[in-house]
Amino acid sequence: MSRSEDMLARARADDAVAAYERLTAADMTEVVGQETAKRALQIAAVGNHTVRLVGDALAIRHLKSVYDTIGGDIFSFVDRGADIVVIVPPTAVTDLLFAPPTDPSATMRERVERGRKVRPTLLNNSGGPALAANAEELLRLACERGMQREQAVKVGLSIAALEGRPYVERLHVAEALGYQKGDD
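Given the sequence above, the corresponding structure tokens read:
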């Protein structure tokens, strides 16, 4: 039996009660894998952004079931026109068996609350976002390629706030642009 077949057999051997408990998670630590989606949900909670999760229905249902535990509003989920679009793949067998530990919901909630306090301070004297020069250049290039500037700035502000940064950097804009998936 190959290693992957062995891992799959172990995953299937999980009893129904344990599987049900994972589906009805009350904490983000019980959501296995899905690190990109977890980060995106924290960003969304900081900036009260709308979110569209696309992909594996079981994983999406699981993520939505614990979103409020990190301070998110369950009414943030939309089918079209979202600020943040996240592709949610099925949870890999290797994640089920070897997933690294994740922060509990309480820790994520504290991070979100700190980010919410920081976010308003990331505005310059004229009320616009405090952007690093290289972030402004990336936004210009992205707009030339059809990306939405306002959406990227809004989400970039939330990313910078989540990380406790004093202004929006190029890396924050790049991540924000990554959440624009051609949502129509």
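The chain has one domain: 3-178. Try to locate this feature in the token string yourself.
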